[in-house]
Amino acid sequence: YEGHIRDFSVLDSSTTEENRGKYLAFTEDSSAPVNHLKSLVAAGLTHFQFLPANDIASINEDESTRINLSNTVNELCNIAPNASVCGVENSGATLLSVYKSYDPSSTNAQQLAEELRGLDSFNWGYDPKHFNVPDGSYSSNPDGIARILEMRQMNQALHNLGLRVSLDVVYNHTSSSGLWSNSVLDKVVPGYYHRRNLTSGNIETETCCQDTAPEHNMMQKLMVDSLVLWAKEYKFDAFRFDIMANNSVDSILAARNAVTAIDSDTYFYGEGWTRPDRGYQQAQQNNMAGSQVGTFNDRPRDTIRSASLFDQTSSLTDQDTIRLGLAGTLANYQLQDKNGTIKAGSSFSQSAYAQDPADIINYVSKHDNQTLWDQLQYGFSQEMPIAQRVRAHNIAATLPLLSQGIPFFQLGGDFIRSKSMDRNSYDSGDWFNAVDFTKTSNNWNVGLPLAQDNEDKWPLISAIINNSNTTVAANDIALAANVFKDFIAMRASSALFRLTTEQDVINRVGFHNTGTNQTKGLIVMSLDDGDGLTDIDENNDAIVVIINGTEQIQSHNIATASGFELHTIQQNSADSVVTTASFNALANSGTFTVPAFTTAVFVKPQTNAQGYGLPA
Questions:
Q1: Phi-psi category of 447—alpha, beta or left, where left has phi over 0 and alpha has psi -120 to 50?
Q2: C-alpha angle with apex 421: 415 to 425, nearest 5 degrees?
Q3: DSSP strand E in 172-312: where?
Q4: What one-character DSSP code corresponds to residue 609?
């Protein structure tokens, strides 16, 4: 569950005012955000990942110099007299009240957010200044030891909830270089820690900013020493690497070895996108396969986010991509494609690459790009009613929980979080990044998003947000949150959803409704724990998952299927629709029937001895 420290509590009234947006918000036992985390842990959530929390160059740690939503128009205008609100809005009004007064179809909100950039306390933090120091803006006092103690208290509180804690680390670049104010490493050993163009001598900026050179021994040592510090002194249990392919495979594995000496249960994962060739084996998806260092899995992600599963005009290739994702995107997994040919996952157009389930981070939404809800709206038809949109979102949001590998989610994605269609909210401020843990609203349609990354789509965004079919109500948000918890709990209930070897996935995961005569929009997956296999689920001999992305009730018959029933969690679900899903046993087969826009999980309860399951 990926969250930003400030997002978690800054606008939450149940958190004490002095702790809002701070480390200590996570220590408040009865706040709405912490209670939400507790409910996810009770369902089966295991890890919380923070966006970068080391010293951030772009946030002034002196709170008295910053302007946030609680500040007044007058306070902003004293610093920025040309701001759009000056001489227009009531000087004593808070900026939050000004935002609330704006017509969301106008450009006013994005203009104010643009004017607050560099003045407010918000930034994702991908511009590191000091790698080994907690950022002071999240502490009660940026001077002295408060930031150290309070980050440790935050992690201790999360551990006490039953969560392990992961930190997003950004060793691939620095905020500055040379003699500029935020430069650090170039002032220690000029020209050493950064990667330079061999022709011009300029520092490379391919990662976004001032690229570091982990191929240089002391830059590698700096990274390793830093990771050991975070693991040992702050008790971080896992690390997510920004632009991991800036490092070599050997570099990442050596770092993991060093941290494993501190915490044998650590987990490394990161962005394995291929970068320009730098003369070493870079830590990208294909090269990390088999290492159990996770890489973010873009294969099913793009297909799911495009809403193609819910589009009867889409290609069957997309359904094959989703199936491979459910099977852990394993290169050696054998699947019958849309043409009826059985072939390895690596041979598909969206080629599978993993060699172990732990190689894969399955996700449909994280801090980058639009939230899942926002992105799906581009793929839905204009006429699609809101109830169907919510159900389709629930299917898409929970697919990672049914997939082999490690599921990953953006904070609030479980309750339909929106950023008002902003595709890059890294510096969009608290207004566009707001999270409502009361689940009253989802931050949809709070203004056109910032021009920088969205202006070319403003006309399309306006058309979407002015469609009444895109506005959710509190009951929609509550349904999504409850359904998400159901799927976390079902995943946690069976090791069949959490297979740990490639061979186990190959032996146990199977797909039906494949090939040339398949029903579009319907995915049928079986998980086998029956005769001839090591018993890893003491409660069930088999599981069948039916994903119905169509607007009609769908039935599918499987030969040899018998003794199945709807999962107990779904029999008692807050989603009254899924409770109508059924299994009907026939003479030599069984038929599964599932309502429209619904994922149903059926189990075959195990008898006293391990029985016959459902071979893949």
A1: left
A2: 90
A3: 173-174, 210-211, 238-241, 267-270, 294-296
A4: S
d(CA 584, CA 595): 15
Q: Using DSSP, state whether 228 is helix, strand or coil.
A: helix
> pLDDT of 16-30, one tens digit each?
999 999 999 999 999
Spatial distance between the Cα atoms of 558 and 562, rounded to a whole number of angstroms: 9
Rounded Cα distance between 396 and 402, Å, is 11
Q: Provide the Cα torsion 53, 57, 63, 67; round to 10°.
A: -110
Return the amino acid letter for 273: W
* Under 8 Å between Cβ of 479 and 472: no
For the question of residue 575 being annotated catalytic, the response is no
Closest Cα partner for 76 from 108, 36, 116?
116
CA distance 139 to 150: 7
pLDDT at 610: 61
For the record, the structure tokens of 285 come out as 């998806």
Q: Are 345 and 387 contacting, i.e. CB atoms less than 8 angstroms apart?
A: no
DSSP label of 158: H
Nearest to 480 by CA among 560, 528, 417: 417
pLDDT for residue 587: 83
Residue 350 has, within 13 A of its CA and on its CB side, a CA count of 20
Burial class (CB in 10 A: 0-12, 13-18, 19+), 608: exposed
Cα gap 287→270, rounded to integer Å: 13
Is this structure's pTM higher than 0.70? yes
Non-local CB neighbours of 42 within 8 Å, separated by 6+ positions: none
CA distance 131 to 171: 8
- DSSP character string of 101-160: HS-TTSSHHHHHHHHHTTTSS-----SBS-TTSB-GGGSS-SSSSHHHHHHHHHHHHHHH
Alpha-carbon span 365 to 375, nearest angstrom? 9
Q: Which amino acid is at 149?
A: L
Active site residue 150: no
Dist. CA 258–CA 265, nearest whole Å: 12
Contact (CB, 8 A) for 241 and 293: no
One-letter amino acid of 179: L
Identity of the amino acid at 420: S
The Cα 1–Cα 367 span in angstroms is: 11
Token reading at 141: 């006092």
> How many other C-beta atoms lie within 10 A of the C-beta of residue 611?
17
- Catalytic residue of the set 12, 237, 242, 374: 242
Helix (H, G, I), strand (E, B) or coil at 510: strand
Whether the Cβ atoms of residue 533 and residue 507 lie closer than 8 Å to each other: yes
Rounded CA-CA distance 247/397 in Å is 31
Task: Output the CA–CA distances (angstroms, integers) from residue 414 to 1, 66, 369, 538, in the order listed.
Answer: 10, 32, 17, 29
Least Cα distance to 211 among 128, 310, 153 occurs for 128
CA atoms of 561 and 546, how far apart (whole Å) = 14
Taking each helix axis from N to C end, the angle separating 372-379 and 298-305, rounded to the nearest 10 degrees, works out to 60
Catalytic residue among 271, 320, 337, 430: 271
Which residues does the chain have with pLDDT short of 70?
A: 608-616
Amino acid at position 443, single letter: N
